[in-house]
Design a protein that fits this description.
Blueprint: H1 9-25, H2 57-79, H3 105-108, E1 115-123, H4 127-134, E2 141-144, H5 151-160, E3 165-171, H6 190-201, E4 209-214, H7 222-235, E5 238-241, H8 250-257, E6 261-263, E7 266-267, H9 274-291, E8 293-298, H10 302-311, H11 315-319, E9 322-323, H12 326-334
Parallel strand pairs: 1-2, 1-8, 1-9, 2-3, 3-4, 4-5, 5-6, 7-8
Helix pairs in contact: 1-5, 4-5, 6-7, 7-8
The structure holds zinc ion (ZN).
The site of zinc ion (ZN) has 4 residues, from strand 1.
Length: 336
Amino acid sequence: MRRLPGRWPAARLLMAAWLTLMLAACGDSDEPEVPASAEPPAVEVAGPATAVIQQDDAYYDELRARWFALEHAERSAAASPGSHNADPEQAPLSAEPEPVSELPVAVLEPESTPAIGIIIDDLGHSLSRGRRIIALPAPVALAILPHTQAAQLLASEAAVAGKTVILHQPMENGAALAIGPGGLYADMDRAKLEQTLQANLNNFVPIQGVNNHMGSRLTSDRQAMDWVMQVLAARGLFFIDSRTSAATQAAFAAEAAGVRHLSRDVFLDNERTFEAIDAAFQHALTLARKQGSALIIGHPYPQTLEYLEQRLPELQREEGVKVVSLEALLARKYRN
Ligand SMILES: [Zn+2]
């Protein structure tokens, strides 16, 4: 069928996106672009200049591992003082009610198939790794950091592929670690916090929801969480609490503001080995069978990507559990 110019705006947008993609791909590589000994960027200073800083993927992998070690050390200490269990996934969560276990599975889903949702955080620095998430044969969501070099391109390509895109909103942690451009801090007044959040939400499109990057300090600040949720409510966005602190107030604030929300059940790759990732994934499957659904957050480590690429194609046939979109998980929770 002949395409009529002007009658196929979506197709033309798609073509433009692909052209941009091809051009950008020339500069995207897994090869390190700076020496391993290079100093990290001054990511705590927000601004357009930081968005174009080139760093290799290994640098971000190491930085992320340090974030996790510190955030989880704090969370484990807060959640279970004296616990001998070194695995944060096994540490008890707070007394917050589990949102997904209130109704029997048979009522939630006609086919009563246990479901998992998967979010990959910290995207936006590497086009190639983001593309591997988009290419996964399941509705895995992309959580993209604001003001990163590949943010808009990944969001556009994900949308074309039918994948959910959420803003991975940097929030202050308890260890005073840099959180990158667009960060929200507990000492911000309401106007400054809203201005920063709105700028992040306007940084790329589309955005269907928000989850927190780090945030062990800010998510435990109810006032700040109320301000955040009121912005999300006005925009009709949902919130996913990454749960980097047992003291998080995010779900309560979301509830109060009428923002649909879910909480992370399992971190997939606290430890970057096949065995550890597989154990965490199995734990999520067990939770899904018990609760009806479970929500996993992972990161764009090579080991995580390889695991998902191997595991997802046959997941439903092998395990009887299916991967569903965040919207589908929310629909299960808020149906009725
Ligand atoms: Zn993150």
